[in-house]
Amino acid sequence: MKALRMLGRALRLRCPRCGGGPLFRHWLEMRERCPVCALRLERGEQGYQVGSYMFNIVLSELLFAAVFVAVVVATWPSPPWTALQYGGAVMMVVAPFILFPWCRTLFLCFDLMIRPDVDTPDMPWDPEQESEERREERGKA
Ligand SMILES: [Zn+2]
Hints:
By secondary structure, the protein is mainly alpha-helical. It has one domain (about 1-120). It has helices spanning about 1-10, 50-75, 80-115, 130-140; strands at about 25, 30. A two-stranded antiparallel sheet has the order 1-2. A hairpin with a 2-residue loop joins strand 1 (about 25) and strand 2. The longest helix is centred in the last third of the chain and has 34 residues, at about 80-115. About 20% of the residues are buried. The structure holds zinc ion. Zinc ion (ZN) binds near residues 34 and 36.
């Protein structure tokens, strides 16, 4: 099933369309295009990643809720309220950073399922044909 295969690729931080990668320069920075199939990872829209940020917030809150309920149920009738309070705060700061790459690839995956034909690579993609900004960044490194 195509949708499950795409979801599996996204969960492995690979390109949902072709399974290629790597899609990330480092943990918090995604490439402009898939290095294998040249899929535009921002899909050519301004503010495209707002959807993945929403994914990130929702997943972080769901993770917090699951851990909170599990700890309360496991330690009932005397849950460690203070530990839950401070641990929950720390978790809500740390979880979005940890979940960030999965939220990017999962959002891309769902977007490809809903709008598979939006990205049409203009021409055979040359990896050296990146934006000026990226070239300058690499020049510094
Ligand atoms: Zn690809």
